Amino acid sequence: MAKPEKLIENGIRLDGRKPDELRHIKIKVGVLNRADGSCYFEFGGNKVIAAVYGPREVHPRHMQKSTSAVVRYRYNMASFSVEERKRPGPDRRSIEVSKVSRESLEPVIFQEYFPRSAIDIFVEVLQADAGTRTAGINAASIALADAGIPMKSLVSACAAGKIDDTVVLDLNKDEDNYGQADMPIAMTPEGNITLLQMDGHLTREEFGEAFELAKNGCKAIYELQRAALMEKYASQTEGDVVE
């Protein structure tokens, strides 16, 4: 696709959003029966599934930690998730995204409760549209809660960036491809930042503006994550009462 002449005009982006507006989000909790916890997460054109297994025995055993659980995070983009078919299997980018995503969730997990155990998180991108790492972190956080893993809080993730010299929230694919900067963050509801990366160039003032936008985006996503979990457990409780 050719580069658009303008990514934002008269304060409105190509997809009709204002600079501080998130894309549409859809959340479904508990979508996989065989996982201990799972979540389907749509974030704009991104469609992501997260599954959590554990705590369970660590294999191979030499990877065990005697005082805490091992958290393992595997991010994978399905070969059909992008327009140009992707080669199956891990690549350099998926390994990097797996590492930073795991590190964004580890601070909130009570790993010391499960020595010599593993908590495995699998994130599969079914359809990609910029921001898959933040969508994956949001889905994984919900799946961990759905699995009953003791956590200090949920983690919410969102990106801000710069297009046509304008700071905006939650870049879509064209904005990510042809914009000037992209800054994903992840944070707890208390405001503790567990992930901050940046690609591109922002001035000090633009960084501050983008950071505030991304934080507000994370707060809005947290409310949706919380509501999705409450909806699932409210329906379960109603089912128990009916029985």
TrEMBL record:
One Gene Ontology term from the biological process aspect of the record: rRNA catabolic process
UniProt-recorded name of the protein: Exosome complex component Rrp41
Family: Belongs to the RNase PH family. Rrp41 subfamily.
UniProt keyword annotation of Hydrolase present: yes
Source taxonomy: Archaea, Methanobacteriati, Methanobacteriota, Stenosarchaea group, Methanomicrobia
Enzyme Commission (EC) number: 3.1.13.-
One GO cellular component, as annotated: cytoplasmic exosome (RNase complex)
Gene Ontology molecular function terms on file: 3'-5'-RNA exonuclease activity; RNA binding
Organism: Candidatus Methanoperedens nitratireducens
Signal peptide from the UniProt entry: none
Gene3D superfamilies for this protein: GHMP Kinase, N-terminal domain (3.30.230.70)
Role noted for this protein: Catalytic component of the exosome, which is a complex involved in RNA degradation. Has 3'->5' exoribonuclease activity. Can also synthesize heteromeric RNA-tails.
Residues covered by the Exoribonuclease phosphorolytic domain: 21-150, 154-216
UniProt xrefs under Pfam families: RNase_PH, RNase_PH_C
Compartments where found: Cytoplasm
Family matches, as SUPFAM superfamilies: Ribonuclease PH domain 2-like (SSF55666), Ribosomal protein S5 domain 2-like (SSF54211)
Gene name per UniProt: rrp41p
Entry keyword set: Cytoplasm, Exonuclease, Exosome, Hydrolase, Nuclease
Self-association state and partner proteins as the record states: Component of the archaeal exosome complex. Forms a hexameric ring-like arrangement composed of 3 Rrp41-Rrp42 heterodimers. The hexameric ring associates with a trimer of Rrp4 and/or Csl4 subunits.
